[in-house]
Amino acid sequence: MEDPCLSFPKSDRQHLPDVLKEDCACMGESIFSDCADFPGILSPDFYDDIAKEKLAMPDPVEPPQPTAYAYPTALPSLTPIFTPTPLPSPTPLPTLADPREMEAYLDDQRAQGQEQQDAIMDQFEEYRLDSQDQGQVYADLMDAQGDEYADLRQEQADEYTDAMQDYGDERADWVKNREKAINSAESLLGAMYDDYGYVFGGLIVTRWVVLGVIMIGYILIMLIFQKRKDVV
């Protein structure tokens, strides 16, 4: 088993980024396929059904940021209230026949003029109040439109917040179960490599030569003991 990642010091192996692990047969999630024959790698203590499910799942997709609703089109202006028609001029008083009644005549003229002025002011006040009421109606409509838009944006923001919360929980669970299985398998394999790394190195021919030397050594020892037993 040749894996360049296993030759790193133990402290470095434990902090290898996933990008580097992709080039290693017995690191990362590939350890359960490429090194599945190694004893203990598929232990149900950490490689259980949940771990298998999470390892088979792709990384959860982060929900896209929603596109803001277009600001509503401004309401059309209300039809202006018609400007009131000017009041007709008062009918002139009849020509004074007796000069001695001049003072009373002037009083009647002043009263008639004041009455006309009061009527004009009443007409203007009514027009002003109607215009003010119409302006308030339009302002209320604009406020209602703005409140409706604000409610839509808030609802959209709440939905996005909930989606992000669900995504965060799902991804945290995905990472936890995957990392638990991967780290356990890597630790098991790493411990074996740290203790018996020399067994995994070298060419097959070299291993057979070493095995042959060991076997010859055992045979020689057995012959020596057998010869000593025959002598005795």
Write a compact overview of the structure shown.
The chain is mainly α.
Which labels suit this protein?
single chain, 232 residues, mainly alpha, 63% helix, rod-shaped
What would the principal axes of the Cα set say about the shape? rod-shaped
The whole-number mean of residue pLDDT values reads 85
Distance between the termini: 48 Å
Structural class call reads mainly alpha
Computed Rg: 49 Å
By DSSP (H or I, 4+ residues per run), the number of helices equals 6
Q: In sequence order, what are the helices and strands, one letter per element?
A: HHHHHH
Helix content: 55-70%
Largest sheet features: none
Work out the number of β strands: 0
Parts with pLDDT < 50 across at least 5 consecutive residues:
none
How large a portion of the residues is in β-strands, by DSSP E? under 5%
List the helices and strands and how they pair.
Layout: H1 10-13, H2 18-21, H3 31-34, H4 49-56, H5 102-200, H6 204-231
Helix pairs in contact: 4-5
How would you explain this protein's 3D organization?
This protein has helices at residues 10-13, 18-21, 31-34, 49-56, 102-200, 204-231. The chain has a domain at 202-232. The mean pLDDT is 85. By secondary structure, the chain is mainly α. Helix 4 packs across helix 5. The radius of gyration is 49 Å and the shape is rod-shaped.
